[in-house]
Amino acid sequence: MGKFTRRTFLSVTGSAIALSAMPRLAFAEDTAVRHFWWGNPERDKRTFAVIDIYNSKNPGVKVSGETLGFADYFTKLTTQIAGGNMPDVIQQGYGVLFEYIANGAVVPLDDYVGKSLDISKMDQSAIDAGTVDGKFYALSIGANSHMAMYNTRLFEEAGVNIGETFDPYAYTYDQLKDIAKAIKDATGVAGTDDNTADYQNFSDFTVQKGANLYNEDGSYGPTQEIVEEYWSTWGSIRDAGGTPPGPESAALAGVSELSQLGVVTGKSAMTYLWSNQLVGVQGLMQDTLGAAVYPNTPDMIPGSVIQPSQFVCLTRDSANPEAATAYMSAFVNDLDMTKVLGLERGIPSNADVRAALEPDLSPAEKVSVDFFDKIQGKTAALPAPPPAGAGEVEQTFERLAVSVLLGERSIPEVATDFLNQAKAILARA
User: Fold this and answer.
1) CATH 3.40.190.10 applies to domain 146-304+389-428
2) For 90-129, what is each residue's pLDDT tens digit?
3) Residues in Cβ contact with 355 at an 8 Å cutoff, skipping those fewer than 6 apart
4) 70, 163, 408, 418: which one has the fewest Cβ atoms less than 10 Å from its Cβ?
């Protein structure tokens, strides 16, 4: 497959997208559809429940669910791709979408739009995000953005007044350092996680400094100065006592289990995730969480973007693509199913679904929706998905950042090492 260009929406599908009435499809008895996603206990419970709903409404179809934690999901998926036995429907993230399109693991959905797949009520931004090189590959199952989640009780106990001492939508790293130290002094709990090894935060910081994480030609955007400044910025917060000690943070580098987060275990008052994870984190806590943007530089240039939290995609190995895409369509349109899914995967991209959910939102979900309302117009433009090799670059960043947290090597030395490796990875990908 040739090199992909920036996403462009396939204009010839316009008439199909306008279709609002979808015919009821009939399938052969015992038509099987497999759905594979990365999850957590809360997501898994909801997803298996909607599979049961779908099966009860479509007796000729048998959808089955498969799930793994994020750390193991892509490893198994790689094995399935090699073996030619991928499930019909797989969950995908925006950051790796291009790689799975490039290797042919997922296939376009255009032939099913207006037939088994209804996207007539989807936000155009969501459709555009799933469109690559003029073809529609990925169905958004929720919008998402970077979010800082903070323990409101600890902030209150430290005298940090929301909206005064701390503006959740406009604060700098210097302000965060002061707030984090104040929380530690008042409560004994570190005011914030240490994001030295957090690639999401680094990506925002790069944009805030006027660069791109990946340039249009696929080359790496951050400079030596940006990498050094990022690690030095978090080093300053750590040295002030605002984060857990370096070795503790190093031990959590790359950990994706929500139960191990410092804000859940009580070792920190603030953590940094994707906004769709707020519901899952809140479910593990007694204290109430608040939501904020990621910290910023003094210039207050937006770094985060609004993007699909996850997609569902049709794989090349599907033996029943019409049945699979009909299930995908119900996953984002059926009000009984979407009521169960709620906002756990992000803000739904279907306007009717959002309206139907509003009266029954939990307190955590209301925090998430309010956050999305308040970040409108305060985010960066959505870039093209990262190039092949981006996942390895991220893993390299995390691994080398651990040596910074442990004080094994100087920041300039590690920054040079990281950039050399990142460029080599992208060059051979």
Assistant:
1) yes
2) 999 987 888 899 999 999 999 999 999 999 999 887 898 8
3) none
4) 163
